[in-house]
Amino acid sequence: MWASVIGILGNIQDDATTSDNRGMARGLIDRMNDYEFVFALHLMKYLLGITNDLSLVLQQRDQNIVQAMSLIDTMKSQLQDFREEGWQIILDEVNNFCELNMIPVIDMEDSIAIRGNARRSRRGQTITNFHHYRVEIFCEVVDLIIQEMNNRFSEVSTELLSCIACLDPKSSFSQFNVQKLLRLADLYPEDFSSNDYLYLESQLRNYIYNVQRDPQFSEVGDLGSLAQQMVKTGKNTVFPLVYRLIQLALVLPVATASVERVFSAMNIVKTDLRNKMGDEWMNDCLVVYIEKDIFATIENEQILQRFQRMKTRRMQLPHLRYSSATTTNTSSVNQ
Fold first, then answer.
1. Which residue did the predictor score with more confidence, 88 or 9?
2. Per residue in 69-82, pLDDT tens?
3. Of 38, 33, 31, which is closest to residue 95 (Cα–Cα)?
4. Using the 8-state DSSP alphabet, how is residue 213 labeled?
5. Bridge-based pairing state of the strands 126-128 and 111-113
6. CA–CA dist 283, 262 (Å, integer)
7. Predicted confidence band at 4 (pLDDT cuts at 50, 70, 90)?
8. Confidence band for 333, pLDDT divided at 50, 70 and 90
9. How many Å apart are CA 27 and CA 206, to the nearest integer?
């Protein structure tokens, strides 16, 4: 693929009709044949490979908190191990790649002028290539990602996820831990009163004893299905405090990736022509837009009839034929 990209850029340089395009293609070729560019490319490829699985899990509509918790710990450990032991791996890969593609390989012991500091550069101060690539690029980039992960997933956030993971119903509630769930209630003081906290421990023990022996919960695989099954069997009223913990656990994923999707949809729904849209009307429009896959299955005839029955109106809305209703419904949802 590398050779193909270089070849295409070479063709653009030879066949371009303007000097600007020729110069741009020539500059890209020169940049790609630079050792520092290849080093940065391999470094980012390796780092994105470490973080990719966690990124995909966090972007899923139905997030698995237990899986995300496991990937967070794994990724932090991988990044730290890569910082301590990955330098030689990256260096060997970059050197091999440069040799295969006839890119000059630099000597790590050679000296270069200090970059980014005009005063020190004028004084003729130098550093080795090893310092530049190992300290100023490799360690600095890896440390930046590690620091960002620690800020995003702090000890409090990690503890919260760890407590929520105890509610996971997989493998017959094997992750269930009463003490961690009591700690989860501590993190939400506004949702649990002092009296609630007194009854919570005994209710947790009764709950786990009950659901582990109930065949209706043997096939439940995630928190969303667990909440639905509790409502279906009426256990949400038998164990209200436990059900409240499950509700709080289900809110957490909504507060991350799903909210970002809502803000993206808001820019589409609330345009300059709709800048006076009220909160209730905007909320209804966002629900329809975000859940358009569900609304695409509802015929316009059903919507018209429901709207007609909401209150007495001066005239009856016309009935739609099935074919036109389906066509209109699909086009309106896609818009």
1. 88
2. 778 878 888 999 99
3. 38
4. T
5. antiparallel
6. 10
7. confident
8. very low
9. 70
Cβ(69)–Cβ(79) under 8 Å? no
Question: In terms of pLDDT, which residue wins out, 63 or 159?
Answer: 159
Q: Is the pTM above the cut of 0.90?
A: no
Question: Is the pLDDT assigned to residue 205 strictly greater than 90?
Answer: yes
Pick from 218, 222, 188: which is nearest to 61 by CA?
222
CA-closest candidate to residue 307, choices 88, 151, 294, 315: 315
User: Which element (helix H / strand E) includes 112?
Assistant: strand 111-113
Instruction: Give CA–CA dist 73/76, Å, rounded.
Output: 5
Question: How far out from the chain centre does Cα 243 lie?
Answer: 26
H, E, C per residue of 85-126: HCHHHHHHHHHHHHHHCCCCCCCCCCEEECCCCHHHHHCCCE
Q: Residue 128 gets which letter from DSSP?
A: E
How many CA atoms lie within 13 Å of 39's alpha carbon, on the beta-carbon side? 23
pLDDT at 258: 56
How many CA atoms lie less than 13 Å away from 230 in the CB half-sphere? 26
Paired residues of 111 in beta bridges: 128
Structure tokens at 228: 């639905």
Please give the pLDDT value at position 327.
47
Other Cβ atoms less than 10 A from the Cβ of 12: the count is 16
For residue 17, list its beta bridge partners: none
3-state secondary structure of 155: helix
* 3-state class percentages of the chain: helix first, strand second, coil last, to nearest 5: 75, 0, 25
Cα–Cα dist 86/100, whole Å: 21
C-alpha distances in Å from residue 34, one per residue of 7, 27, 113, 129, 160: 16, 11, 17, 14, 46
For the chain, what's the residue count? 335
